[in-house]
Design the sequence.
């Protein structure tokens, strides 16, 4: 008889997700902190919506033909027979929150960050649980608000030192009337070339011809190059808004490229659309994307108000920041014998130093093992409290990089650390 194995199978994480720890979470938090600080300084208020929403919030706003709704959403029926979804994007959820909380008449400037969920084929820069930061400017229907959110994007990417790696691409999707005329012309053109389109583009043509412009298939790209240009179909209102956007970018000395193939897979977008993309020719090269939405609120039962905003993928930002050296200063404290451990703990409790400095108390092992642990966690140095030092109300500092030791007054530890690490 075969012997049954007593070894349990190692548990795995869900495909397309990742654990954040070590340097990865330090970088993640660094990006979020930069974003929050900037948004607070520009008078954007933070908002946080639930991860769970009713499915109708997204089927009505994003459109049944969008990839998110048709094949990517994590939707399910709960025990109460409610049709729920794990939040796939932030804008529609925030629109729902504005309607629910009856603040549609206010001029709202919001920022948010958090996890989003889409069941896509996992690859570099595309996860099933991913994180976004984003802003929404709701209630102002003029091009100045479009320019303001682009300025926030510019400053954010500059703060992260990645703006020079990216290209700002812009386009106009026009208003509903212009877009309808363009859709008809584009559909007719693509029908003439139907047999040469990829299978995915053939499917998109049936539901939303605009999505074919976004194809990354080489043959589709060749066909699209000779397709009608949406700019030629803009009516007076749409053309004026696009010209004002371009003039504003010129006035603000913001570099941009007009990309007539830039579209949105979500039904609620119109007029301005923009993306910050890498110069690498790969499918997942968009770092930050946004635009104007003047039909979103009405589509989910709200008032007919407008908005403009953007969202950026935290994981894709991280991919542009591989060369960032995040500061990770660690300082250990330990005693030469266990009778002094409580005194060490009290010293740590009384510290008032910069929160970016990590303090680690080592309270187990002999003297040699404590040193070994301090080195293992990558400490810059250690404070060591022995009986002789305690009698003198002092503590020994040992710098691991130089090997130098010095005595520090117990009352001056804060001053010593601030001078060593932050001056």
Sequence:
């Amino acid at each position: 008889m075969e012997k049954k194995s007593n070894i349990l199978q190692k548990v795995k994480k869900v495909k397309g997700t990742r654990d954040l720890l070590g340097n990865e979470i330090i970088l993640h938090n660094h990006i979020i902190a930069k974003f929050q600080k900037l948004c607070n300084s520009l008078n954007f208020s933070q908002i946080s919506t639930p991860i769970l929403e009713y499915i109708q919030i997204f089927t009505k706003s994003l459109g049944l033909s969008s990839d998110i709704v048709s094949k990517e959403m994590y939707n399910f029926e709960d025990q109460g027979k409610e049709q729920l979804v794990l939040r796939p994007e932030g804008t529609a959820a925030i629109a729902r929150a504005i309607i629910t909380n009856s603040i549609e008449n206010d001029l709202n400037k919001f920022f948010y960050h958090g996890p989003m969920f889409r069941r896509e084929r996992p690859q570099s820069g595309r996860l099933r649980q991913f994180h976004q930061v984003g802003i929404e400017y709701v209630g102002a229907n003029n091009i100045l608000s479009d320019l303001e959110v682009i300025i926030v994007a510019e400053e954010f990417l500059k703060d992260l030192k990645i703006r020079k790696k990216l290209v700002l691409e812009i386009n106009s999707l026009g208003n509903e009337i212009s877009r309808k005329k363009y859709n008809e012309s584009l559909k007719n053109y693509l029908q003439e070339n139907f047999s040469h389109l990829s299978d995915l583009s053939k499917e998109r043509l049936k539901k939303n011809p605009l999505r074919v412009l976004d194809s990354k298939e080489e043959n589709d790209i060749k066909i699209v190059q000779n397709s009608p240009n949406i700019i030629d179909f803009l009516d007076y209102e749409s053309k004026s808004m696009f010209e004002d956007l371009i003039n504003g970018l010129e006035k603000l000395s913001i570099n941009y490229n007009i990309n007539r193939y830039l579209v949105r897979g979500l039904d609620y977008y119109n007029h301005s659309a923009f993306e910050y993309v890498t110069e690498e020719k790969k499918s997942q090269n968009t770092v930050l994307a946004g635009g104007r939405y003047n039909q979103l609120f009405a589509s989910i039962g709200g008032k007919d108000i407008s908005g403009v905003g953007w969202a950026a993928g935290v994981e894709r930002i991280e991919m542009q920041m591989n060369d960032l050296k995040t500061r990770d200063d660690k300082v250990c404290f330990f005693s030469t014998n266990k009778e002094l451990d409580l005194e060490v703990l009290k010293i740590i409790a009384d510290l008032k130093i910069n929160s970016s400095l990590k303090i680690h108390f080592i309270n187990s092992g002999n003297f040699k093992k404590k040193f070994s642990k301090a080195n293992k966690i990558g400490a810059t140095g250690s404070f060591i409290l022995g009986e002789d030092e305690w009698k003198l109300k002092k503590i020994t500092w040992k710098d691991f990089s130089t090997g130098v030791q010095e005595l520090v007054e117990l009352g001056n530890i804060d001053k010593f650390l601030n001078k060593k690490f932050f001056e």
